[in-house]
Amino acid sequence: MKYQIIGEKEIPNIPWQDKPAGCSDVVWRYDANPIIQRDILPTSNSVFNSAAVPFGDGFAGVFRVDDKARNMELHAGFSKDGINWDINSERITFETDIPEMQTFCYGYDPRVVFIEDRYYVTWCNGYKYRPTIGVAYTYDFKTFHQLENAFLPFNRNGVLFPRKINGNFAMLSRPSDSGHTPFGDIYYSESPDMTFWGKHRHVMSPSMGWESTKIGAGPIPIETSEGWLMFYHGVLTSCNGFVYSFSAALLDKDEPWKPVKRGKEYLISPQKLYECVGDVPNVTFPCANLVDAKTGRIAIYYGCADTCTSLCFTTVDDVIDYLMNNSQI
Ligand code: BMA
């Protein structure tokens, strides 16, 4: 490998397909997408924008499941190969002794990360039906302990870094509004205890055409010799509504609010039928990446058209080479 991956483990059974012969794309799709169909549960309307991590000798995840009443809920799931998933039929019920957190109204777009001794889940959490960033932890994906919301409403796309930075937990997020938010920058915040968040810093604003309306952090950033490799989504407003694509950036290792490279084009945009057609057309929305420290292989989980879940692949070398040669800050 040309670039070094820091702090990640080997995942010998990472979901993987080689880049198809003749393909010049930096990120390529799994040829049997989508991996999770909308009706995987008898009660599900759609399963998308979901997170997976290595767990035991397989994988565990937290899934966005919208049910047939169109409640937005989070379900835990397990997989041996990261592709075929058993998703619990019951939603996660978070345990908490914080009275204000005891009423669940909705949860969506989860991210999951292992930090120190446990898995943390962040998601867009309805607080009095106002979206903000919910935080919980689990050791086993059976019992989930909910902490305080990280921020005031309105906020979405809370994404933790996989280790403390400058001695504090660190999170990216995107302040928003109560609706479909026609704006959005990525911000960085730190916390000594996962409860009190501060040291807020601006990271990036929308810039290129494909992301000209708003941007938001996607999967957990990957630490590399060149900085934090972050995939992020960007939204363009077309005559027909929002179009969600995604690309990548490198953030400074010690001051991650400073982008050092930023892809000037999308890496995946809605082009396949399952990305263009569904409950919300033209959405590709990444919420998780697995990275194998030995080979540099990356598998990205992304939601498609707010309906189903797919996989795509790249490598640390492929993405960073792209960013080195095609960056526009
Ligand atoms: C965002 C979130 C995502 C969704 C996207 C497109 O605001 O709600 O869950 O995928 O809109 O509808």
Number of helices: 2
Envelope shape: globular
Order of helices and strands: EEEEEEEEEEEEEEEEEEHEEEH
Overall pLDDT score: 98
> Ligands bound here?
beta-D-mannopyranose
Largest sheet: 5 strands, antiparallel
What is the tally of beta strands? 21
Percent helix, as a range, is under 10%
Q: Work out the strand percent.
A: 35-45%
> Any idea what the radius of gyration is?
18 Å
Characterization of the model:
4% of the residues lie in helices and 45% in strands. It contains two helices and 21 strands. Strands 14, 15, 16, 17 and 18 form a five-stranded antiparallel beta sheet that branches. Strands 1-21-20-19 form a four-stranded antiparallel beta sheet. It has a four-stranded antiparallel beta sheet with strand order 2-3-4-5, with no helix packed on it. A hairpin with a 6-residue loop joins strand 12 (186-191) and strand 13. The relative contact order is 0.17. The protein binds beta-D-mannopyranose.
Task: Summarize this structure as a short list of keywords or feature phrases.
binds beta-D-mannopyranose, globular, single chain, 4-stranded antiparallel β-sheet, 329 residues, mainly beta, 5-stranded antiparallel β-sheet, 2 helices
